[in-house]
Design goal:
- This protein is an alpha/beta fold.
- The chain is globular and about 50 Å long.
- The two termini are 29 Å apart.
Length: 246
């Protein structure tokens, strides 16, 4: 099912080699969706590649920001842009093929069945992490288990592969999200969960090797852990501050 007004948002940083094949793979799905890329002044020239792609694809828009401001900040900017331009549905995904474009129709199909948020989950089926080492799988599942236990929501909360039905979610919902980094993903999903927006998951696989290198270093991991603990404190001590006024 294709919505009347759909936007696919992809933030980039040093993804020069990825953005053209990713754009073509998305367009190959035949979806009635616009594309929005946001580049944080990539030193490798990703922004220039995107500008040339936009000249060939009239439904593609590129935003350039000065300096690297954080993945959470990028998603907040993309969400705000989608609201400002009247989109009803917003899909967010990574630019390194970690989120295979062939799952995009499945996100749209699940949203068409009444969900306000649809999440592509790595944890619904066995064998969803092909090519991963045993150690990497263990750490990933441990992180998921900790997030589920502390926040009390059974979703893949750290993935960016999502669909939001913006027509069902007031924009002020995202104003409650504080994180500017990777913790944006579990914080934003927790805010949506607390406010009882219908959330669904679809099973997906995450390839063992994606294009480019991971941008999440040990400092970002430590920051996310601290933010998770802070969010637990907000949940226990000031839960009303996580809720929007209906």
């Amino acid at each position: 099912m294709n919505p009347v007004s759909c936007l696919i948002f992809i933030p980039t940083y040093n993804e020069r080699e990825n953005v053209e094949p990713l754009t073509e793979a998305i367009l190959d799905q035949g979806l009635d969706c616009d594309l929005l890329f946001l580049d944080d002044d990539s030193p490798d020239g990703t922004g220039s590649v995107l500008d040339k792609l936009a000249e060939r694809h009239p439904r593609m828009t590129v935003i350039h920001r000065e300096g690297k401001a954080g993945i959470g900040s990028a998603h907040q900017a993309g969400i705000a842009w989608a609201y400002e331009h009247g989109y009803e549905w917003l899909i967010t995904m990574d630019s390194d093929f970690a989120h295979p474009p062939e799952y995009l129709p499945k996100l749209l199909e699940a949203a068409g069945e009444g969900a306000a948020v649809v999440v592509g989950s790595r944890y619904l089926k066995r064998g969803s992490l092909p090519g991963w080492s045993a150690g990497r799988k263990m750490l990933t599942h441990l992180g998921h288990a900790v997030t589920v236990a502390l926040l009390g929501m059974p979703y893949d909360a750290t993935t960016a592969f999502r669909l939001y039905r913006l027509g069902d979610i007031p924009q002020e919902t995202f104003a409650l999200v504080r994180s500017q980094g990777y913790s944006f993903f579990f914080e934003s999903l927790f805010v949506l969960h607390v406010n009882r927006f219908p959330i669904r998951q679809i099973p997906m696989h995450l390839p063992g090797r994606t294009f480019g290198a991971s941008k999440m270093d040990s400092r970002e991991v430590a920051t996310s852990v601290r933010f998770l603990i802070q969010l637990l404190g907000r949940k226990l001590l000031t839960p009303r501050r996580l809720r929007i006024r209906r």
